[in-house]
Amino acid sequence: MAEAQSIPAGSSAGGAVAVAAESTVATRMSAPPSFDVADFPVPHGREEEWRFTPLERLKGLHDGTAVAGGSAKIEVTAPDGVTIESVDRTDPRIGRAGKPADRVAAQAFSAFEKATVVSVPAEAVLTEPVRVSLHGEGGVTFGHTVFEIGAFAEVVLVLDHTGDTVRAANVEFQVGDGAKLTVVSVQDWDDTAVHCTQHNVLVGRDATVKSVVVTFGGDVVRIHPRVSYAGPGGEAELYGLYFTDNGQHQEHRLLVDHTAANCRSNVAYKGALQGKDAHAVWIGDVLIRSAATGTDTYELNRNLVLTDGARVDSVPNLEIETGEIVGAGHASATGRFEDEQLFYLMARGIPAEEARRLVVRGFFAELVQQIGVPDVEERLIAKLEAELAESIG
């Protein structure tokens, strides 16, 4: 599996695997972030932020023809002390973590009726996760959720998406000074679901955020995490695991905007693909602004192609406006399943099917361990086993 720190634009691994990489983030967005959907032109697929996305499969989320009329069952369970509110769009807490960055996110902001605000008080140390379960029950749905984490609080959030819907949503994570947040977002949709969501993360002074995004289901899933820093000393760790199956399009587009001094970010996403027309897209943008001296950042994307007919587009971007940093780098690697690894295990008496499972489980093991919620880890391991059984069996 070849790996590079600097990859020329349009490079290709040949066969069923295509890898692209670019060196700048100058064309990240065709329009500046805005709450107003009218500020974004209808995309046609030639724009930088849409060139990999199958627009015809978004069911009208991108051009305004998708009209809310579906339903989704949402349940929030939280320990004592956590406040859960339903508010309208005039609530001053809405939008603090960032604005919509594309037309779908702006459409979601314009279309939601009520937002859910989950507030964790300052200095609270939660011994159980806050769990938000969303089950799609058909049709088009829009949503907006705000997680307000008080200063020096310690919180684990689990966001679970299941069922069938065409959904666009914005999720905000407003993390107070010195707070510690771990958020696990699981996309385990039915095969026909469409899900586009923007995650805005505002990291407070000396705060720590760990995000783990896990994507298995859905026809089209497009997730856009965006991180910025409200003060110096903040840390963000962004992990992702995805298994892209026959005909699925899974797209993860990240932006880490280093806006304050002495902050750190680490990005590591891994994906496996199998089946005809399986398509995974990973875009990793890191921007280090002139004021962000002392920045330390690294981003990594690795992909394992299990069968012919799958395609990966992996684009790491790094833009630096100051030379006074600790370090900055990126790497992207895509490769086929290697027969040498199988031979090594089979030579030690391990059957071929079990050897393949061991290789893939080992590929994902580090990221699964980052979840830190035992029941979620067990569920995802079982899901991974089911996917592998389909591939191998």
Protein described:
With 393 residues, this protein is mainly β. The protein has four helices and 16 strands. Helix 2 (339-346) crosses helix 3. Residues 1-27 have low confidence and may be disordered. It folds into two domains: 37-337, no CATH class; 338-393, no CATH class. Helices cover 14% and strands 42% of the residues. The longest helix has 19 residues, at 374-392. The two termini are 25 Å apart. The chain has a 16-stranded mixed sheet that branches. The protein is globular and about 60 Å long.
Keywords for this structure?
16-stranded mixed β-sheet; mainly beta; SUF_FeS_clus_asmbl_SufBD_sf; globular
Structure in a nutshell:
This is Fe-S cluster assembly protein SufD. It comes from Streptomyces litchfieldiae. The chain has four helices and 16 strands.
Could you say how many structural domains there are in total? 2
Return the structural class. mainly beta
The 3D shape can be described as globular
Order of helices and strands: EEHEEEEEEEEEEEEEEHHH
Q: How many strand units?
A: 16
Uncertain runs are: 1-27
The overall pLDDT average reads 88
Assembly state = single chain
Distance between the termini: 25 Å
Helix fraction?
A: 10-25%
Strand content: 35-45%
Query: How large is the radius of gyration?
Result: 20 Å
The largest pleated sheet is described as:
16 strands, mixed
Total number of helical segments? Answer: 4
